[in-house]
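User:
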Amino acid sequence: MNHYIAETIIATLDRKYDFVVQSPLETFLLDLKNFIEFINEDELVSTFTSKIVNALNVRGARYKEQLEKEKALAIELKDALIKAHPEIDDSDRVKEGIGDMSYEYSLAAFNRIVSESYRSGTPLEHDRLDDDSDEALLIKILVGKLSQVDEIERKGDPAVDSELRIKVNNLDAAHKFTHLEWINYCRTSPAVEWLTLMEIVRRINPEPKDSGRWQELSIEEIGNAAIREWIEEKPYEWVRDLAYGPITKFADYKPANLSDVGIQKKIEDLKKSLKRVYEAVRQEVGTTGLRLDLLNRYKIRCQWYNHEFLRNSILKSDGEFIRNREDVLTRDLSLYLFDQGVTSIYRPQLGRHEYDLLELDVRQPMFIEAKAYKQSSAKAELVSGVSQLHSYLSSLEAHKDISEAFYVIYRLGGPIYEFPQQISTSRFTIYPIIVDLGLSDESGRNQPKPILLSEEEIMGEVTAVQKD
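Assistant: Predicted structure:
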């Protein structure tokens, strides 16, 4: 994607967004639906929408990983508490009917939550600050057991280890921090707003459900399933009325009994969600466009102004290429980026991987992998570089919000491999950039014929390599 394409995408996005926010009440939801389909399905835009969704997936995976650590610590503290006070161990307790609420604070409930992700019920009115995670329930039980220990202490029995009490309190505080961090992220995440809008447009004209879906269920299971569906659909009762009410004379047009003020608030809330999504997609297009423009200028710099210097810097006196030619070329790229205001680390080693160039101290860093080739048989190596780059990104995303990379390929000789403008996987987008440093006499009739590589061919070989 060059700078012109980026500008075209942004201009189209701007026009479509302005059209939606100015849409009349009668067609607002339908125009909103069309916009969401555009950013999800358009070949040029969907890549950037996927990036913001992927950022949510990465952040969610880190959140779940932290919860798993807290759960493991809660289990460890539970075992230590039982060892210190075996008399509080009620792990074998059986729940005595629906009204037995004290069971929810027993170690039997603790063990059931650990093994089954047990829930006591689904709230009809859910507050955004509510924490119904397994870990919150486990910690609540541990805190309750500490209160039980306090009763034992008052009767003169040995006190529970103060260090153990501190650990439980620290876990409680740490989990509340984890929970609020996740809530804060979700409140400002464009991907969360995107999910909200997806749920809205999905209910404008929903796909019909199989009428036989409950056929094999018992009466009790049918009742539970019906209640779950009702709870899931209740917040969206107004959608269909708002989409179709204004155009039929048979409707009194009071979606879900909302007042005119309530209807207007629904629309304003949708516009706020839409604006956050639009701004995020627009920003992603602009950021990627600027980075590509930066690297394309480097390509021109190398091929027009620095061609001879770079070739001489990687040639020995006998005309053969030096062994560490990729290192020399990558350092040249790193210096160029620094001069343009991008501070990158050269050859950083994180875990078991060593990367070529990684932008320093930014939330979404610029990630670059470099390759240099001179043989006519370099195709397999270059395609393998895409697979290697994908592996690097998979490893790095646990640490950084990263969903794109730039694959800078220096041609020193051999055929000209023409890569697609971008290579998209399920989570990442890779942008290949060919820097041609071939000999000056390779022009006109002597110019090597390009070998075209399609995205399908590259991904097919990458998938085959990963399976092996």
